[in-house]
Specification:
Distance between the termini: 34 Å
CATH architecture of the largest domain: Alpha-Beta Complex
Strand order of the largest sheet: 12-21-17-19-14
EC number: 3.1.21.3
GO biological process, one term: DNA restriction-modification system
Helix content: 25-40%
Number of domains: 2
CATH superfamily of the largest domain: DNA methylase specificity domains
Number of strands: 24
CATH topology of the largest domain: Adenine-n6-DNA-methyltransferase TaqI, Chain A, domain 2
Structural class: alpha+beta
Pfam families: Methylase_S
Largest sheet: 5 strands, mixed
Protein name: Type I restriction-modification system, specificity subunit S
Number of helices: 12
InterPro entries: Restrct_endonuc_typeI_TRD (IPR000055), Restrct_endonuc_typeI_TRD_sf (IPR044946), Type-I_RE_S_subunit (IPR051212)
Length: 409
């Protein structure tokens, strides 16, 4: 049976009433906590301006099984917690709900996420008003028969939860693999001593500062307005955070060919490093350029030119120990900035090329399983998420009047 046919059978002619959210739920704004009140570990998660807990607190101000929406920062993000938590002042949460299963409401709001995001005011800090949420219309099956209504909602929730449970299992597996990968990466790239040289078995490992190994070449500015279908291959610093891994052979973008002489380039084998970011991990994020030709880099990037195995260097720059070292040379202003002159003094291990190649071969296998977007767990998670979204949108596609009540227009 098709999804549409199943929904029709499930409803069995039941009436669908579309109601403004303010008439169905009590939506409250959370209460502020100052940083000094937060705990690194605690009983209740604190949600502030993102879906990542800001910290923990010894009290909660919500009930179990609560839907909530971020209203500042990551405004428009929608969450659900089976456990009580503390909602801070950048969170709206469902304090009480009438006529709707809370989890049903959560799934429905997810299906309307694009419409909710369209109501976010884009300022220095994105914000979502309670008024915009109150006027959002939601479907209520069989409103005059609560038993039948909740039976319909619960069945839809059961089906959708089965998809999200599978995705959660795969995500947990991916996180476990990532931890395993990080452990073995750090283990393989840990060498005693920070200066001179030492032998590991029959392998001599020297420690040298980055500036002793190579040189840093800063890129030249270009903007997204310069992008073109054909022209000079470029790597923008913003893409290094999210779109590139340890290495790449292809640039994702191009700029106009007439800009070629005004740009600066990374050569094959160079490490491309960002010099700004929102987090310590982002600043100094590294990707090895393994393309056959040079590639232009943004002025918030440096090309580190050296003679080592480029992937060995890139892998080492992801290690816990290296991140701790580079943190010392980051200016912690509103936008964190890398102080490259001091950064270049960081010492890294320099084993023989054969040992570098051996370590890279091992780590490549872990990296392929953990981080590849075309094979392994990430690809499977992506497919399951698309499957969930397809069934969610079909199961929640209730008949609507001619007027688009989902936007209140």
């Amino acid at each position: 049976m098709s999804v549409a046919g199943y929904l029709e059978k499930l409803l069995n002619g039941a009436e669908i009433e579309w109601m403004a959210l303010e008439n169905v739920v009590e939506l409250k704004r959370g209460r502020r906590l100052v940083k000094s009140q937060l705990e690194s570990e605690g009983k209740f998660a604190v949600y502030q301006n993102s879906m990542t807990p800001l910290g923990y607190y010894h009290q909660s101000n919500t009930n179990p099984d609560t839907t909530f929406i971020i209203c500042a920062g990551a405004a428009g993000e929608i969450g659900y917690s089976s456990s009580p938590f503390w909602a801070a002042d950048d969170v709206y949460y469902v304090a009480s709900v009438d006529l709707l299963n809370n989890k049903f409401l959560y799934h429905y709001l997810l299906s309307q996420k694009n419409k909710i995001l369209s109501q976010v005011r884009r300022a220095s800090i994105p914000r979502l008003s309670k008024t915009a949420l109150d006027k959002l219309y939601v479907p209520v099956p069989c409103p005059n028969n609560s038993e039948k209504s909740f039976a319909i909602q619960s069945e839809i929730v059961r089906i959708l939860d089965a998809f999200t449970a599978l995705t959660a299992e795969l995500t947990a597996e991916l996180n476990a693999r990532q931890k395993q990968y990080n452990y073995y990466r750090d283990l393989l790239l840990t060498f005693d001593g920070q200066s001179g040289s030492r032998a590991v078995g029959q392998v001599e490992v020297k420690w040298k500062m980055l500036r002793e190994i190579g040189e840093f070449i800063r890129g030249k500015r270009f903007t997204k307005a310069d992008y073109a279908d054909n022209g000079v291959s470029v790597i923008h610093y913003g893409d290094i955070y999210t779109k590139y891994g340890i290495s790449t052979t292809q640039a994702l973008n191009r700029v106009r060919a007439d800009m070629a002489s005004s740009l600066r380039y990374a050569q094959p084998g160079d490490i491309i490093i960002t010099d700004v970011g929102e987090t310590v991990e982002d600043v100094g994020k590294a990707v090895a350029w393994l393309g056959n030709n040079k590639v232009a880099i943004h002025d918030h990037c440096y090309a580190f030119r050296h003679t080592m195995n480029p992937k060995f260097v890139s892998y080492y720059m992801q290690t816990t120990s290296f991140i701790a070292e580079k943190a010392k040379y980051i200016a912690r202003t509103k936008v964190k900035t890398l102080l490259v002159n001091n950064y270049s003094k960081i010492a890294i291990p320099v084993p023989p090329v054969e040992e570098q190649d051996r370590i890279v071969t091992i780590l490549d296998k872990f990296d392929a399983l953990t981080n590849s977007i075309t094979v392994g767990l990430p690809r499977e998670i992506e497919l399951r998420q698309k499957q969930y979204e397809y069934y969610r949108d079909m199961l929640l596609s209730f008949p609507q009047p001619e007027q688009d009540v989902t936007t209140g227009a």
